[in-house]
Amino acid sequence: VMLKLSPYSSSISKSRKLTIMKRIYLFTTVLFLTLNSFSQQYSTLTVEGKAIVKQVPENILITIEVSSKDIDYSTCVDKLIKSSIDLHKDLLAHGIDSNIIKTSDFKIAEDIDYQSGDRVKVGYQGLIELSIESEFSNKLISNVMTIIKSGHYNFNLSVRFILSESQKQELINSAIKNSISDAVEKAGIIAKAANIELVKIKSITYDNEFRFYDYDSEMFNRVRYVAPRIAQGGGTAEFELNQKELAVEKFVTIEWITKSK
After folding, report:
1. Cα dihedral sign, 212-130-233-109
2. pLDDT tens-digit profile of 166-215?
3. Are 132 and 100 in contact (CB under 8 A)?
4. Which whole number is the average pLDDT over 149-162?
């Protein structure tokens, strides 16, 4: 069976196609004009906020590096272990809590001397580190110095002030709030000067890294004292402690959608 289309049905089909094409063209034109108008009316503004908050550290970290030397490996190890045990006992005897005394970095290495430009092995040297972290007190410092000066230890001593965990969290929270406030304030100043309106925040970007440092020198507040090779009773070993503020620095980037006034 053959179907024969009349000229009338063919013209209807063409008319429908033209109507659809006109609608598509009209929709595309309106969409383009709308987007073009939006792009001319709206834009974005990106501002970086910065905050530095400071606080005097509550805690102190005392690090004592005890060393030993001997031509024989086993003897060097024995000397180092004995010095470490004796020092630990002395600390406990002076009322220092065993829970805040940590031992780490036990090392034994060849003791190399340079003679006429040649490397000459003269024995072995050992190193062990004891650290004490606690709330700062002059009594703690005094007790440690008394022990060090009265014992026959080969040592290096370092003292630095550090933030407690609660202080760190407090500073971090303040830094985040203040950096956001700084960005908002800067955006407001720019918007007013440029005669634009801040419509809404598009995005906020920040990382989880925070930099803690000595605010004055941009270094950790650290005082180091290197004692004579052997500290014995009656000797003098004095140094000053300067408890400065430590700071945390934070950056936050905020992007706004803005509108022309």
Report:
1. negative
2. 998 898 899 999 999 999 999 999 999 999 999 999 999 987 776 666 65
3. yes
4. 81
Are 61 and 220 in contact by the 8 Å Cβ rule? The answer is no
pLDDT at 250 over 60: yes
DSSP structure class, residue 216: T
Q: What is the CA radius of gyration of the chain?
A: 36
**pLDDT reported for residue 152:** 73
Q: Tell me the residue ranges of DSSP E strands in the chain.
A: 42-55, 59-70, 101-115, 118-135, 154-162, 196-205, 211-214, 222-225, 246-260
SS3 of residue 116 by DSSP: coil
* More confident site: 225 or 242: 242
Which residues neighbour 256 within 8 Å (Cβ) at sequence distance 6 or greater? 44, 45, 46, 47, 187, 198, 199, 200, 201, 202
pLDDT of residue 162: 86
Looking up tokens 């407690």 gives 164
pLDDT tens sequence across 69-120: 999 999 999 999 999 999 999 999 989 999 999 998 889 999 988 888 888 8
Q: Which residue has the tokens 């090392």?
A: 107
209: alpha, beta or left? (left if phi > 0; alpha if psi -120 to 50): beta
CB 83 within 8 A of CB 153: yes
Distance from C-alpha of 71 to C-alpha of 123, rounded to nearest angstrom: 4
What does the DSSP 8-state code read for residue 203? E
Report d(CA 103, CA 85) in Å as an integer: 10
Q: How far is CA 89 from the centre of its chain?
A: 35
CB atoms within 10 A of CB 102: 11
